[in-house]
């Protein structure tokens, strides 16, 4: 019997269509004994193993019912892309520190106390927090600055502020969100690396100033080409940070200032894989690498080990 026959890969998706459809077709065309399908659940039991060898999670950041399901699936041995525990724990403040400690350049980054708290929190609950010295912060980071949520994506609640009054207005609006403040990297080139399977990296120019559908496609018209040295540097950095985070699909953004690539956003654990954004060549590359990855994972029951695996093995 062929090993891996009848392996099932489940997809959890939102509104996207092009990527999941292409992944299903790609894996079918490889005749590897692995089927990709849209996962289905209604009221799953904690005491039963989900019927998938691999689950690819594209949407649990928005549909939170999938979060406990994916963790449970991992408990029963399903290989989950991306790691369902780290996906929830990850944040941009920690990430900046991690990237820096791994030797990447990152913008100066500060964590701010929330502007507002829920009704159960009063001044006594906040005894550990001291007043923020905004003037000192302005001296440290300089204007402009980026104010953004420590956990988020899709540019939600991200502001670029150019003076103290804009900073105060944006901070006031952040309400109960936990925010970070970052030095603005005044860049001459901006890059995005697609990273799949903690192994394959595809670097591309990407211009955040352009409309969504043109950011990859027209970036070569708006900024200088990547040199060989820069390409090697960002590929190495993107791989290192993605391996450190343990993500099997990710995009890592760099802003290049004075020839130095600064890591900006690498918490993209459900990266935009839509053909309209990526264009045909990047899209085909992503689908191919993801196809290979899910087949590898379907056939590798020991991938992604957790501490309880050892304890459960001991128990049987
Ligand atoms: N420190 C920074 N310096 C320069 N540009 C930044 C900085 N932080 C964010 N940006 C710009 O803002 C965009 C959105 O910020 P990002 O951290 O990626 O938030 P999100 O995760 O919501 O996409 C980035 O793609 C980049 O163009
Ligand atoms: Mg981003």
Question: How does this model look, in words?
Answer:
By secondary structure, the protein is of the alpha/beta class. It has 3 domains: 7-88 and 296-315, 3-Layer(aba) Sandwich (Rossmann fold), CATH 3.40.50; 108-183, Dna Ligase, domain 1, CATH 3.30.1490.20; 186-268, ATP-grasp fold, B domain (D-amino Acid Aminotransferase, Chain A, domain 1, 2-Layer Sandwich). It contains 11 helices and 12 strands. It has helices at residues 18-29, 66-75, 84-89, 92-101, 134-141, 164-174, 219-222, 228-245, 275-278, 280-298, 307-315; strands spanning 7-12, 34-38, 54-57, 79-81, 109-112, 145-149, 159-161, 179-183, 189-196, 200-205, 249-257, 260-263. The chain has a 4-stranded parallel β-sheet with strand order 2-1-3-4, sandwiched between helices. Strands 5-8-6-7 form a 4-stranded antiparallel β-sheet, with helices on both faces. Helix 1 (18-29) links the parallel strand 1 (7-12) and strand 2. The chain is globular and about 60 Å long. The relative contact order is 0.16. Bound molecules: adenosine-5'-diphosphate and magnesium ion. Residues 107, 146, 148, 152-156, 158, 182-185, 208, 253, 255, 264-265 line the site of adenosine-5'-diphosphate.
Mean pLDDT: 95
- How many β-strands, per DSSP? 12
CATH architecture of the largest domain: 3-Layer(aba) Sandwich
The CATH topology annotation of the largest domain reads as Rossmann fold
> What strand line-up does the widest sheet have?
2-1-3-4
């Amino acid at each position: 019997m062929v090993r891996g026959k009848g392996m099932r890969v489940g997809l959890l998706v939102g509104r996207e269509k092009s990527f999941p459809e292409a992944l299903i077709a790609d894996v079918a065309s490889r005749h590897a004994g692995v089927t990709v399908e849209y996962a289905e659940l209604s009221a799953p039991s904690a005491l039963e193993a989900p019927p998938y060898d691999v689950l690819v999670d594209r949407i649990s950041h928005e549909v939170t019912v999938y979060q406990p399901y994916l963790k449970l699936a991992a408990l029963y041995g399903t290989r989950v892309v991306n790691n369902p525990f780290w996906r929830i724990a990850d944040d941009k403040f920690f990430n900046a520190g991690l990237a820096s400690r791994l030797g990447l350049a990152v913008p100066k980054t500060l964590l701010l106390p929330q502007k507002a708290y829920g009704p159960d929190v009063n001044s006594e609950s906040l005894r550990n927090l001291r007043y923020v010295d905004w003037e000192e912060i302005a001296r440290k980071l300089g204007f402009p600055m980026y104010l953004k949520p420590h956990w988020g994506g899709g540019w939600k609640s991200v502001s670029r502020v150019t003076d103290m009054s804009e900073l105060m207005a944006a901070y006031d609006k952040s309400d109960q969100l936990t925010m970070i403040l970052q030095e603005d990297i005044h860049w001459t080139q901006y890059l995005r690396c697609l990273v799949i399977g903690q192994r394959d990296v595809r670097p591309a120019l990407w211009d955040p100033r352009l409309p969504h559908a043109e950011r990859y496609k027209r970036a070569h018209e708006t900024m200088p080409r990547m040199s060989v040295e820069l390409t090697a540097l960002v590929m190495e950095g993107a791989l290192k940070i993605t391996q450190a985070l343990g993500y099997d699909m990710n995009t890592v953004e760099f802003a290049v200032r004075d020839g130095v690539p600064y890591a900006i956003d690498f918490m993209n654990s459900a990266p935009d894989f839509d053909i309209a954004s990526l264009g045909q060549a990047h899209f085909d590359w992503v689908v191919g690498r993801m196809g290979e990855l899910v087949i590898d994972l379907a056939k590798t029951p020991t991938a992604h080990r957790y501490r309880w695996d050892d304890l459960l093995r001991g128990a049987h």
